């Protein structure tokens, strides 16, 4: 049993009124700990502490901040297995994934921004010989970082690291569904003597702790990753105090397979794109668009590869897919599958709960599901299900593929499969999405802009984009004789 506490001003506290909530391991449905059900008072205390710490942190120089972020990265890495086990138990994801992806990526996020801040630069404009303009980039002050449950430490650190590197002090509000590794991060800060108040972590639900953070008048910016409906609400509240807001929201991403693609590699990657992390990645390719001439061939490959996935105990090394993150989310995904059936969808494989014996007999396991035959206007092709469900959609021509790909309210990412370079460029430029992969999926370079268009988000994360978000540009104009 882990008893999580808030991390404020370098110390651990329960919520002021002593209220707490349960942490459930979705692979066994067992209670594995508690965390504080925080609200306004805890956020106020964290903001006070961060405000006090800001003066020193923001003026201490990039080398100082970089050193601390590198230390944090090293300390997390030294406990990689512990962190990975916690992430797996908290979220239901395979331990192998947490070990290979989530925790190494959190380490990489801290290292990347620890390095990036040392190489940051700004602009200067020489007008006439006697006029010089230069731009200072100054930290905002106290900022809020709110993250979701699907890649808990990975996405939490993706926000915290640039905010701290740029000289801000942070109030982090991790998802209430998966609070374990954020708490371990706080413990790690204490172990390495990380400066007090620079990073504060307040646990609790969105409507209480999250809402108090967003509304707080002394919080200058909110970096949010989560659902589109929550993002819309946050944007509305933050606009009252004219906060800067970065929103990374949902997706309904197309994988587009043209007839000339390497169909074997395309199918293998399409299955990975659909079902990695139980389909619970904002970048998952949940609509697989296949050119009609190769539809049957690709469909057969997709079914075969999907059936070959091992769903089971996340702690076992042979497991490809673990549990769905919570009972509530499990019910939501099943509901979407039922809706797809009612809309005329034909379930090609999956569509049912799986029972895993032993330790996991009560866990929330779902068979990876492929569905075809649903009109594109139906919810399975329009709404983000955020589970192991993908639809197969045939198309005839390139222009039809683009029209279908763009025909949702989302626009986060897309993956195109073709050997025709001209087609790759043409289609990439016409897709309404923030990220396009050609003949690959989820290749990440941390310097590139990351984010979506339409209802998938506002703003970009990654490299300089994140450092710019967490700073204010100030122009200084000097007239010389
Ligand atoms: P969510 O919106 O329910 O919650 C996300 C976070 O927001 C949590 O920490 C939650 O406590 C907090 N929150 C909820 N209501 C709030 C409020 N009123 N004020 C302030 N904070 C509030 O999302 P989720 O279910 O945790 O995550 C799944 C969603 O996240 C999916 O839609 C997925 O696509 C999206 N996501 C997007 C990206 C991206 O980079 N675009 C990455 C990962 C996940």
Strand order of the largest sheet: 15-18-19-14-13-20-21
**Major pleated sheet:** 7 strands, mixed
> Uncertain runs with pLDDT below 50, 5 residues or more?
none
> The CATH topology of the largest domain, please?
Aldehyde Dehydrogenase, Chain A, domain 1
Percent of sequence in beta strands: 15-25%
Approximate shape: globular
Number of strands: 23
Just give the CATH class of the largest domain: Alpha Beta
How widely separated are the two ends?
A: 70 Å
- Please give the count of helices: 15
CATH superfamily of the largest domain: Aldehyde Dehydrogenase, Chain A, domain 1
Bin the helical content. 40-55%
Plain-language structure description:
α1 crosses α7 and α4 packs parallel to α5. The chain has 15 helices and 23 strands. The strands form 6 sheets. Strands 15-18-19-14-13-20-21 form a 7-stranded mixed beta sheet, with helices on both faces. Strands 10-9-8-11-12-22 form a 6-stranded mixed beta sheet, sandwiched between helices. It has a 3-stranded mixed beta sheet with strand order 1-5-4, covered by helices on one side. The protein has 2 domains: 272 residues, Aldehyde Dehydrogenase, Chain A, domain 1 (3-Layer(aba) Sandwich); 193 residues, Aldehyde Dehydrogenase, Chain A, domain 2 (3-Layer(aba) Sandwich). The termini are far apart. The protein is of the alpha/beta class and 481 residues long. The chain is globular, with a radius of gyration of 23 Å. The site of nicotinamide-adenine-dinucleotide (NAD) has 31 residues, from α7 and α8.
């Amino acid at each position: 049993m882990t008893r999580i506490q808030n991390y404020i001003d370098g110390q651990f506290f329960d919520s002021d009124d002593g209220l707490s909530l349960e942490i459930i391991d979705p692979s066994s449905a067992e209670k594995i700990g508690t965390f504080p059900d925080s609200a306004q008072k805890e956020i106020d205390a964290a903001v006070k502490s961060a405000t006090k710490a800001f003066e020193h942190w923001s003026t201490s120089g990039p080398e100082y901040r970089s050193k601390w972020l590198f230390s944090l990265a090293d300390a997390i890495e030294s406990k990689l297995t512990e962190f990975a086990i916690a992430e797996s138990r908290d979220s239901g994801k395979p331990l192998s994934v947490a070990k290979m992806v989530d925790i190494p990526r959190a380490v990489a996020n801290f290292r990347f921004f620890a390095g990036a801040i040392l190489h940051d630069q700004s602009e200067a404009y020489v007008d006439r010989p006697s006029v010089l303009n230069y731009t200072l980039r100054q930290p905002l002050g106290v900022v809020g970082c709110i993250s979701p449950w699907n890649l808990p430490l990975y996405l939490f650190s993706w926000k915290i690291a640039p905010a701290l590197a740029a000289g801000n002090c942070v109030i982090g509000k991790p998802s209430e569904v998966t609070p374990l590794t954020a708490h371990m991060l706080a413990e790690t800060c204490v172990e390495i003597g990380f400066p007090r108040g620079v990073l504060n972590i307040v646990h609790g639900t969105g409507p209480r702790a999250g809402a108090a953070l967003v509304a707080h008048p002394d919080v200058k910016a909110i970096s949010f990753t989560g659902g589109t409906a929550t993002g819309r609400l946050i944007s509305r509240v933050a606009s009252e105090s004219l906060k800067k807001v970065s929103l990374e929201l949902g997706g309904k991403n197309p994988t587009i397979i043209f007839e000339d693609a390497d169909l074997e590699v395309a199918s293998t990657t399409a299955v990975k794109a659909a079902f990695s992390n139980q389909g619970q990645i904002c970048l998952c390719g949940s609509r697989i668009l296949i050119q009609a001439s190769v539809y049957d061939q690709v469909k057969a490959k997709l079914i075969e590869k999907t059936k070959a996935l091992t769903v089971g105990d996340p702690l076992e090394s042979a497991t490809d897919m673990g549990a769905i993150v919570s009972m509530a989310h499990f019910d939501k995904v099943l509901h979407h599958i039922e809706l797809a059936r009612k809309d005329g969808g034909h379930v090609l494989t999956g569509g049912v709960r799986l029972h895993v014996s032993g330790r996991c007999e009560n866990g929330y396991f779902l068979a990876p599901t492929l569905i075809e035959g649903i009109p594109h206007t139906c919810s399975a092709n329009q709404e983000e299900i955020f589970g192991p469900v993908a639809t197969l959609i045939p198309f005839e021509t390139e222009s039809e593929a683009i029209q279908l790909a763009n025909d949702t309210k989302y626009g986060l990412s897309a993956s195109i499969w073709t050997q025709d370079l001209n087609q790759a460029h043409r289609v990439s430029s016409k897709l309404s999405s923030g990220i396009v992969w050609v003949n690959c999926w989820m290749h990440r370079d941390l310097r590139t802009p990351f984010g979506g268009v339409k209802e998938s988000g506002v703003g970009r994360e990654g490299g300089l984009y994140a450092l710019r978000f967490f700073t204010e540009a100030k122009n200084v104009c000097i007239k010389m004789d």
